[in-house]
Amino acid sequence: MSVRTIGKVILSEDSIISVPAIQIIATVPTDPTSKKIPISLSICYGGEISTNDSETNKTNMKQSKLMSYYYALPHRRKEDDVIGVPLLDTNNDIIRDMTKRLALLMVKKFNKPCYVALSIASESDSNSLASNQIFVIKKCIDFVVTVLSGPTTI
């Protein structure tokens, strides 16, 4: 079971709309044909970004709260069907819906099991997620496509 983990921070200047910072950490199988090793996504939405660490030259997100964690996998007998279950649920429908939707889309696109964890830095960031939901999902899927296509550094 060989995997690799790659992260990326998307800042608001990367888009034409104002979006809080998004940190995506993806763990993917190194063998693209493997159907059993899951894709794991950890998404941190919002919050402030700490300054670059001069020693490691990396940007780090501030502390955030895990709001939702969802697991989805392809159905064994029906190729077009996906089974999913919340591992950590929330009463916020927007957060629950985004986590579920992203996990289900990942399974349909890559035909691999998928874990999606979503953390939010503050309540105000939680409120802005509704209008930025599609943008976040698109950026996450684009990132995983890039990671699975081969480059080791993003």
UniProtKB/TrEMBL annotation:
InterPro entries in the cross-refs: Psome_chaperone_3/4
BP terms from Gene Ontology: chaperone-mediated protein complex assembly; proteasome assembly
One Pfam match: POC3_POC4
Gene Ontology CC terms: cytoplasm; nucleus; protein-containing complex
Descriptive protein name: Proteasome assembly chaperone 3
Organism listed in the record: Naumovozyma castellii (Yeast)
Encoding gene per record: NCAS0B01490
